[in-house]
Design goal:
The chain is mainly alpha-helical. 66% of the residues lie in helices and 1% in strands. The protein is built from 16 helices and two strands. The chain has a two-stranded antiparallel ribbon. The radius of gyration is 21 Å and the shape is globular.
Amino acid sequence: MNTAWKTLFETGRIARAALREQQECIREVHARLAPHLATPATTPAEYAVRPAPLPEARLGWRKNLFSTLFQSVYHLMDIPAPRRMLYGKLIHLFRIWVTSADNLLDAEDKEVVPLVMPGSARVMRQVVAVMAADRVLAGILNDAVASGTITDTQRDDLARESLCRLLPSAAQEATEEGGITNRPPPEEVLGVIHRLKTGLLFNVAFVGPELVEPAAFGRTGPLREGLMNFGLGCQVLDDIRDMARDFLEKRHNYILSVLSFQDPERLQEWTARPPSVSDRLYLDVPQFALPAARLGFDRMASGLRTLGEAGLGCSGAQADSMARAMFPVLDLEGLSVV
């Protein structure tokens, strides 16, 4: 990843502090998960489950880019350290829930909870990760009450809303499980569907402040919109990369919706001769892929500029450079918006 991101996380005052806090939060959540991930001593060896060590490489800024941006907003909001750390642990729990759900929905196996189980166990690892994370949430919230960081009522609100705030995104995903039958206009994909699917997840960092810091939360409009725009830009690039998979699995996709209205014959060709899931279909339609790439870039750059203006520590030129660097991160090296 380019030097602009490296500079932000290694020398930027706020981003550097946020990364250190996220690393501490990840370590604590991992330590709290361990007791829930070990089978009783009497369990036959072939059925034993145990926690695995947390790889040190998992703590670098490249692996925690989004989480660190989320943690940074707590500094920009002047939230006291004890509650920043509480919210940081919630961020990692959200990451566990969302990643595990995506793994189940997309038949993937991105490890977010290191765990040793017999067999390949791709599905069961996700189930166990979600159940363990729920138990860790209860312990973290109870400890926060005991330390005076939050009240009993705030604990109960956070326990409830940590799920409720994910439900619109879950409902959106549910509409795609059986495959969609019609492609909506691209404006609806970007303005409604993707705001629920991805944009909402880039705003989960504000669940804690909204419930516990109402005065600070009232000043977060630009921060929320900045993270939302950055997330939507990333999702547009995901759509470009995942055109073949989304076409075959009949999932919502911004650029496929553009094609359905502007070049439906192309979709008919792909229906007659289905592509492979790994095909880079965007290379076949550069006249549509390049404007979509520019849209994704503009959204990401706009979001980063907003965060920079709020005090994150990146200039407009750095924001553009950081947005451009997301193309190889999202496996779109062959697509340039320069």
